[in-house]
Structures are given as structure tokens and as C-alpha cells.
Amino acid sequence: MDIGVLTVVLGGEPLEDTLEYLSGIGVDAVELGCGGFVGEDHLPREEYLDDEDAQADLLATVEDHDLRISAISTHNNPLHPDDERANEADRELREAIELAGKLDVDAVTCFSGLPAGAPGDSTPNWITAPWPDEHADAHEYQWEDVAIPYWEEIGEHAQDHDVKVAIEMHPNMLVYEPRGMLKLREAANPWIGANFDPSHLYWQGIDVTDAIRLLGEEDAIHHFHAKDTKVYDANAREQGVLDTNAYTDEPNRSWMFRSIGYGHGEEHWKDVVSTLRVVGYEGALSIEHEDSLTSGKEGLEKAVDVLQRAVFDTEPGDAYWA
User: Fold this and answer.
1) N or C terminus of the chain with fewer C-beta within 10 Å?
2) How far apart are CA 107 and CA 68, in angstroms?
3) Measured torsion, CA atoms of residues 11, 14, 16, 21, in degrees rounded to the nearest 10
4) Do 38 and 254 contact (CB within 8 A), yes or no?
5) Phi-psi region of 23 (alpha: psi -120 to 50; beta: other; left: phi over 0)
6) Across the chain, what does the average pLDDT equal?
7) Structure-derived torsion over alpha carbons of residues 211, 217, 220, 223, reported in degrees to the nearest 10
8) What digits encode the pLDDT tens for the residues 249-282?
9) Going by DSSP bridges, is the β-strand pair 2-6/284-287 parallel, antiparallel, or unpaired?
10) Is the pLDDT of residue 164 over 90?
11) CA atoms within 13 A on the CB side of 220
């Protein structure tokens, strides 16, 4: 199992410097942003898409630093009710899948997207309860009329290019929890799966290791984000966990994204790693730093430190005692 990093946190530095730094702190793999909310500082998609020499140079540079590319990332909303925004996100995703195929990269990480609540609406609508009844009707419209037809097409596109699509279960997106992830995968095809990011599950009260087992039993974990969350009970008891305070309003947040080990201890992360191995996932644990209480590099280095003690370096041995 590799320790990886989503390099967006180092987007202000040249790719070569980023790779040298990450290799030096013990990282094995990188996830490169190529569009959408994560930007494309280290992988400007259009520059690489049809340039075989540039693709070869990129792969050689990554390999020279003893790294590999675990995934490329384009997080956006291809189901947006604004056609221009949806079309841009759709083009980014389809081109990212094509580029990943050319780079021989296993997965593209992304969001499911979020539609409006009805035709003609202009704003995406995240529905979290079925009543009053118009909310249940809107939720059915989002799935049946918008999301499923779109992701059926993307699933076929991914299969054509031999690339897995790894959807991050995220609030304010249609797929934000494991059962919804399985619903979308069943409606599309097995090329659609999860970029399993536990940070969005902790605050929802979802047991992360149970969720790993649920998705892993369906071979539905295509990539993994190593990212922690801390729930601050004093605030959560008063305002719940559906928190609209700014991420930088730390004293008033019910929960915050934290560096690995600062939301849950090392024992928990060892359990996460072990459960991933139980379900057969041996890919990258791609660290995504979004901890507002520390700098990017310190957050990465502390996360690597914890994960290096949690991951297994060898394949399982023979169970000679069994």
C-alpha cells in the first residue's frame, strides 16, 4: 500500500520541486489535479491531452523521483443546472479520463455532481430529507432524470479508455454516503466507484471501517483519500453537524478537517489500513491536506509520519498456524 499526496496543496511550487520534496519525505505516489475546483497547476490537461512527448516527459519525471501517479483529479459539477458550467465540467471529466488512459493511470477522481431540484431551476439543490413531499419528488428527479443517464454515459466512456472513475462522497453533491455510491454504481457500471475520503463520513456519523467493508465487498473502492476530521462536541451539541460556518471560523465550527492523526489517533488509522487490506485494496492512500490549523507542508509531514507506521510494506505471509 502506497502513501500518496494530492499535490494541490503544493500548487504554488513547480512540479519538479514538488516531486523532489514529496519523494524526500517518504511519499510513494502523487495525485495530480487537472481541472475543476482542484485546478491544474501540476497537470494542465489541454497541454498534455494530445502531446505524446509531453506525456512521456511527465511520466519520466515522476519516475525519476521514484514516484508513480495514483490518479488524476478533476472535481467539478457536471450535473449543474447552468448548461455552460455543466458542459465545462463534463468536458474536463471526459478529457481527464482520456488523458488518464494515455498516461496508463488507473483512476480519475471527481465528484458525482449535483442537479437542481426541478427543470428550470438555476441552483443545485442538496436534499437531505424526504418531507415535505416536493423534496422527495425533487430527489427522484435528480437521480432518475439527470444523474443516472449522465453517469451511464460516463461509465461507458471510462470503460472505453480502461480508466476507473473514483467519485468522492461529498456533502452538497448527490452522492455523499456509501449507499448512494452503490446506487450510482449499480445504475451505471463497475467502472464507477468511490474515491473513499473518510473525512466527509466522520461528521455524518458513518463508521468508516464498516463503510470500507460495505464498498470493498463490491470492489467499489477505486482510490482512497487519507484525510481526517475532528468533531467538536461542544459546538455540535448546540448546532448539530450540518455546519454552514466558514471553514476558517474555527472556534464556531462543529467539525473541522484535520491532518491525519489529529482527528483520530494512530490506532484508528491502523484499523483503516487493515480493513482496506481485508477487502483487497492495495492502492494509494492519497493525503489531502485541508487543515486550517497548520501549514501544508507540516500537515503533509505529520500525516506521512502516522501513515508510515500504519501501512504494511510486505504482502501477507502464509498463515502457517492455520
Assistant:
1) C
2) 13
3) -60
4) no
5) alpha
6) 98
7) 70
8) 999 999 999 999 999 999 999 999 999 999 999 9
9) parallel
10) yes
11) 25
Buried-exposed string 254-271: b where 16+ CB fall within 10 A, e elsewhere: bbbbbbbbbbbeeebbbe
Let me know: does 73 contact 110? Beta carbons within 8 Å.
yes
Percent of the chain at pLDDT > 90 equals 98
Cross-strand bridge partners of residue 230: 256
Ramachandran region, residue 36 (left: φ > 0; alpha: ψ -120 to 50; beta: rest): left
Q: What is the CA radius of gyration of the chain?
A: 19
Alpha helices for 11-82 (secondary structure H):
15-24, 45-48, 52-64
- Three-state DSSP state, 120: coil
What is the model's pLDDT at position 322? Answer: 87
pLDDT one-digit tens code per residue, 45-81:
999 999 999 999 999 999 999 999 999 999 999 999 9
| Cα–Cα distance measured from residue 209 to residue 214, given in angstroms and rounded to the nearest whole number | 9
For the segment 217-239, the average pLDDT, to the nearest whole number, is: 98
Give how far Cα 12 sits from Cα of 42, 70, 169, 296, Å: 9, 21, 27, 11
Helices (H) and strands (E) in the chain, counts: 12, 10
Alpha helices of 141-191 — where are they, by DSSP H? 148-160, 178-187
Q: DSSP string covering 245-296, please?
A: S-TT-GGG-SEEEE-TTSSS-HHHHHHHHHHHHHTT--SEEEE----TTS-H
Per the CB < 8 A criterion, the answer to whether 51 and 57 are in contact is no
**Cα distance between residue 238 and residue 78, in whole Å:** 35
| C-beta pairs of 296-301 under 8 Å, 24+ apart in sequence | 296/9, 296/10, 297/10, 297/21, 298/259, 299/9, 299/259, 300/5, 300/9, 300/22, 300/25, 301/25
- Cα gap 167→185, rounded to integer Å: 10
Task: Give Cα 79 distance to the centre of its chain.
Answer: 18
83-103 helix and 148-160 helix, angle to the nearest 10 degrees: 20
